[in-house]
Amino acid sequence: MTNARPGLNATSIAPALVRGALELEATARGLLPHRLPA
Fold this sequence. Notes:
mainly alpha, about 0% strand, about 40 residues
């Protein structure tokens, strides 16, 4: 995995991935509430 931008490292990527995962989960819950057991 090559890093073209030295400033873009794990410390800046990780929070973005976490936010993306949370947004996807929130979107899934908002669009498909009938598919969730709770």
